């Protein structure tokens, strides 16, 4: 499974890249439907593939993007730059997750929340389209990260619970206030808000309020949720988000600070002891003698009346002083509360004295640095690796206004190169981790007293909200690309160039035998000819080895594609409540990288078709007398220069009658034509554009990527696809693809006094047939080859050229297999087999039917390569 | 049936699900001096909780979950 993930990651990157570039194109030409399709398909595939892994947040987000693109495709939604922005930032986010997946094999903890908030933005873009432009910032604003609680927000919360939460907060935990207002119809989808809140991780207190005041019991609709909940929790924010991941739309999380929790209430008192305590405490506070204040507070609290407000204040004060470094302003406010009996929030948090530009989420900076450290600790030293982390740390320092430290980053980098290890750089990072909290303290204009104070720079007011988004973008950009691996990554273009060169070499070495003949015939040097032939043998061997080697570079096992299917079949069969076992054979069959990669989508489509439409539900299978468990087979094997992939199922098979009817209904063919089709021809109709028998669109198949797309894709690769099916017994789809695409083996034949090439893979055998063995059946000719009647076609007739008169009384017959049927081609003579690079016909001759391309012979002549499928 | 009816007493027993909500709402209307016993209640659905809040019946016994108990205590009058 791990290797599957390793393959998914580069694929996902490719898909993200192609959709991003497609989106950019779309921004310029919004109406280009082919680009829309391209982007849609890429995102669709990304969604499908991501479903194989446990990354629900990613899949959900991509799904929303796909829906949006689907609407664009259906012309329900217009592409505008803002929409493109949203989609691109979605793709960026997915890219970040992919990087995280690569290093950690899981999504980051906050993925659920980000997925949720970005999906909301995308959905808004969808619903608002057409009327007004969407506010591009709403996604960032929707993040509850930097909210503060209102002073009265926790009034409904039990004072004892608040005290407990306060104690936890003072001890160093962070406390979250969870406000949850379920949708009023949530009971109908099985949601039980109460149960969910009662099982909230780290729950300290839970309160509930009616949303609207309750009607009389006689009027009550008990199935309409009229409660909202408020909870305090000490669990990490990400845990809470994960727990409430399906309801995040209805949940607001707010970080709770110490002063939010303090509530001082009770009987007023003007006892002199409180005044004395106040005077003493103020004095002690000036000297930072926290321990002494705590002692007096506890002593006094134990003897004064428990119902007095001042006594309550003493308890809070004692608790606040439990902190390792108590918050001075908070302590001062509590000391005052002891005297006055009312607690006034200290003002320092609400209006920080420093300009907003200086306040940045330092915590994020710490996260970034620690992730860089983790990355560097895990890999062997390599000078080039440092570039990314160095740039990231430098940018970080700049954003924290610590430009003076930039030099130390450079220096550490140089030391690393000298030392041949990352250690100097890691030391620097360690130092930064230690120092960053003090940057925060310094900017606060106050010594960092408690945890709340250390984290204070995280509390950003309205004006600074945008920075959350900026920060995320920055971390996206700064994220180091990917860890290097031992594998040399080479641009595919370079391999292709090499491949082309070798192809040319293979072809030009073919000219040496001609040269040898000239040496002998023209220059009369038999010895020279022999030497050239010897050299030719060597060059020939080397060229072939070279070609094999370079092909090997590009060869991948077909298992690369097959590996994703077991999970897919398992998941889909569960979803469809079908019992299906997948049998894979021949996974080690190798084929060219291009072919393997291009196989992915068509194969996915065919397998999904089999699952969705081919295999019957278990009950139907049992009724038909078949085993309940259906079998889908994936088989790959090599056949001559082809790799053959078969997908078969033992499902219900295709009904030619149904296909005929459907094709007529969809206007693909006329009823007349339908009547004339054989069953196999009817089945072949599924390859026609615009044909899809699926009556309902499910999320498995039927997104408009029909079998015609499969055929186009396969034929583009120089392959063929065929489907056979028997009603009640199942279907078999067979893909035949060339092993390699660069060099084709052709046989040179003589026909109508000229030379032509015939692709070797079509040729079954060559025979000489005596004229008396050729039978005439009306106009047509045929002969019997090993008890099989083979129709004959004369090549000269096909080419409309005069035939060469027969020399002896035997015809040269090339037996070919065309579209699965054997045909005998009568030609003048056979020549040699040859490796050539077939160049397509271009320019003025491009439209000439019957030829697939041209190639150069060793003596410089142009050889036309016949397209027998078209000719015969 | 997690809701056990005994005269004017309705006892919540074990896990009380959303299906009981309508029955409970009707019972709160129909039964005179209705009394709800929660001591053997292990959990209740939100719908039941809000029905109790709307009906404000007499409650005796506290549910086993401490958090649920304190919710009931603050939201429904308690005379038990």
UniProtKB/TrEMBL annotation, chain A:
Q: Where are the Phosphohistidine modifications?
A: 44
One BP term from GO: chemotaxis
Which stretches make up the HPt domain? 1-101
Q: What GO molecular function terms would the record report?
A: phosphorelay sensor kinase activity
Question: Which reactions does this protein catalyse?
Answer: ATP + protein L-histidine = ADP + protein N-phospho-L-histidine
Q: Which residues form the Histidine kinase domain?
A: 538-741
Q: Name the UniProt key words of this record, in alphabetical order.
A: Kinase, Phosphoprotein, Transferase, Two-component regulatory system
**Record domain CheW-like: where:** 743-872
Has UniProt tagged this entry with the keyword Cytoplasm?
no
Q: Which GO terms describe its cellular component?
A: cytoplasm
Q: Where is the composition biased (Basic and acidic residues)?
A: 458-480
EC number(s) given by UniProt: 2.7.13.3
Q: Which Pfam families match?
A: CheW, H-kinase_dim, HATPase_c, Hpt
Specify where the region named Disordered lies, as residue ranges. 446-484
- PANTHER family reported for this sequence: CHEMOTAXIS PROTEIN CHEA (PTHR43395:SF1), SENSOR HISTIDINE KINASE CHEA (PTHR43395)
- Functional note: Involved in the transmission of sensory signals from the chemoreceptors to the flagellar motors. CheA is autophosphorylated; it can transfer its phosphate group to either CheB or CheY.
Q: What is this protein called?
A: Chemotaxis protein CheA
Automatic annotation (TrEMBL), chain B:
Source species = Asticcacaulis benevestitus DSM 16100 = ATCC BAA-896
Taxonomic placement: Bacteria, Pseudomonadati, Pseudomonadota, Alphaproteobacteria, Caulobacterales
Recorded protein name is STAS domain-containing protein
């Amino acid at each position: 499974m791990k290797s599957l993930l390793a393959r998914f990651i580069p694929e996902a990157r490719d898909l993200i890249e192609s959709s991003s570039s497609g989106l950019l194109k779309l921004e310029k030409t919004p109406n280009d439907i082919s680009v829309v399709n391209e982007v849609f398909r890429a995102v669709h595939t990304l969604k499908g593939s991501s479903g194989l892994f446990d990354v629900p947040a990613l899949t959900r987000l991509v799904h929303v993007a796909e829906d949006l693109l689907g609407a664009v495709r259906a012309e329900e939604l217009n592409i505008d730059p803002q929409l493109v922005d949203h989609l691109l930032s979605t793709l960026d986010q997915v890219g970040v997750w992919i990087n995280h997946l690569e290093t950690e094999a899981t999504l980051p903890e906050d993925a659920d929340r980000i997925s949720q908030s970005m999906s909301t933005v995308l959905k808004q873009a969808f619903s608002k389209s057409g009327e007004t432009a969407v506010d591009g910032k709403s996604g960032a604003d929707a993040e509850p990260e930097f909210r503060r609680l209102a002073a009265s927000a926790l009034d409904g919360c039990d004072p004892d619970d608040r005290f407990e939460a306060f104690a936890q907060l003072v001890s160093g935990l962070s406390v979250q206030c969870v406000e949850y207002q379920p949708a009023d119809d949530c009971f109908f989808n099985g949601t039980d808000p109460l149960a969910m809140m009662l099982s909230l991780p780290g729950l300290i207190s839970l309160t509930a309020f009616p949303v609207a005041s309750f009607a009389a019991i006689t009027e009550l609709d008990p199935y309409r949720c009229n409660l909202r909940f408020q909870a305090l929790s000490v669990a990490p924010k990400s845990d809470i988000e994960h727990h409430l991941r399906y309801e995040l739309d209805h949940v607001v999380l707010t970080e709770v600070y110490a002063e939010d929790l303090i509530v001082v209430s009770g009987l007023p008192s003007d006892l002199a002891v409180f005044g004395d305590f106040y005077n003493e405490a103020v004095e002690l506070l000036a000297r930072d003698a926290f321990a002494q204040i705590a002692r007096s507070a506890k002593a006094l609290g134990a003897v004064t009346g428990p119902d007095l407000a001042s006594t309550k204040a003493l308890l809070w004060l004692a608790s606040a002083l439990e902190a390792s470094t108590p918050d001075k302003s908070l302590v001062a406010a509590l000391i005052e509360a002891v005297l006055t009996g009312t607690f006034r929030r200290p003002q320092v948090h609400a209006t920080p004295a420093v300009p907003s530009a200086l306040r940045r989420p330092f915590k994020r900076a710490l996260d970034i640095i620690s992730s860089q450290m983790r990355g560097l600790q895990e890999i062997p030293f390599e000078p080039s690796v440092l570039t990314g982390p160095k740039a990231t740390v430098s940018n970080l320092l700049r954003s924290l206004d610590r430009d003076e430290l930039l030099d130390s980053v450079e220096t550490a980098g140089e030391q690393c190169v000298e030392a041949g290890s990352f250690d100097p750089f890691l030391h620097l990072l360690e130092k930064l981790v230690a120092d960053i909290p003090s940057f925060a303290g310094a900017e606060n204009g106050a010594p960092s007293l408690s945890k709340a104070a250390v984290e204070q720079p995280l509390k950003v007011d309205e004006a600074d909200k945008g920075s959350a988004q900026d920060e995320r973008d920055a971390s996206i950009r700064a994220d180091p690309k990917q860890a290097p691996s031992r594998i040399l990554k080479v641009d595919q273009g370079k391999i292709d160039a090499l491949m082309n060169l070798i192809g040319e070499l293979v072809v030009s070495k073919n000219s040496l035998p001609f040269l040898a003949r000239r040496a002998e015939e023209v220059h009369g040097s038999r010895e020279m000819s022999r030497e050239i032939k010897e050299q030719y043998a060597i060059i020939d061997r080397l060229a072939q080895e070279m070609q094999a080697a370079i092909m090997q570079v590009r060869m991948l096992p077909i298992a690369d594609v097959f590996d994703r299917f077991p999970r897919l079949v398992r998941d889909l069969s569960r979803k469809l409540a079908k019992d299906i076992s997948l049998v894979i054979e021949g996974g080690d069959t190798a084929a060219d990288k291009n072919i393997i990669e291009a196989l992915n989508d068509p194969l996915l489509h065919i397998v999904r078709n089999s699952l969705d439409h081919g295999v019957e539900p278990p009950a139907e299978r049992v009724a038909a007398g078949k085993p309940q468990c259906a079998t889908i087979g994936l088989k790959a094997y090599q056949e001559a220069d082809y790799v053959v992939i078969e997908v078969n199922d033992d499902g219900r098979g295709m009904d030619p009658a149904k296909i005929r009817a459907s094709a007529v209904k969809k206007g693909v063919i006329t009823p007349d034509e339908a009547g004339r089709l054989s069953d196999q021809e009817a089945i072949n109709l599924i390859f026609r554009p615009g044909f899809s028998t699926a009556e309902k669109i499910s999320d498995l198949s039927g997104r408009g990527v029909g079998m015609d797309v499969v055929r186009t894709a396969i034929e583009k690769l120089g392959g063929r696809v065929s489907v056979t099916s028997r009603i009640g017994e199942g279907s078999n789809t067979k893909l035949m693809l060339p092993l390699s695409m660069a060099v084709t083996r052709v046989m040179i034949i003589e026909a109508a006094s000229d030379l032509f090439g015939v692709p070797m893979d079509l040729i079954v055998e060559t025979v000489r047939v005596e004229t008396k063995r050729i039978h005439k059946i009306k106009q047509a000719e045929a002969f019997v080859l090993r008890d099989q009647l083979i129709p004959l076609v004369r090549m000269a007739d096909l080419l409309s050229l005069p035939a060469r008169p027969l020399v002896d009384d035997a015809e040269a017959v090339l037996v070919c297999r065309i579209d699965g049927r054997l045909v005998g081609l009568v030609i003048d003579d056979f020549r040699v087999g040859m490796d050539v690079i077939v160049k397509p016909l271009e320019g003025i001759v491009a439209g000439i039917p019957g030829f697939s391309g041209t190639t150069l012979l060793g003596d410089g002549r142009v050889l036309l390569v016949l397209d027998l499928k078209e000719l015969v | 049936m997690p809701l056990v009816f005994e005269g004017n007493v309705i006892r919540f027993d074990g896990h009380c699900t959303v299906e009981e909500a309508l029955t409970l709402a009707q019972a709160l209307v129909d039964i005179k001096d209705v009394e709800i016993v929660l001591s053997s209640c292990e959990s209740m659905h939100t719908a039941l909780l809000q029905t109790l809040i709307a009906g404000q019946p007499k409650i005796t016994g506290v549910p086993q979950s401490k958090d649920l108990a304190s919710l009931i205590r603050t939201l429904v009058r308690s005379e038990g």
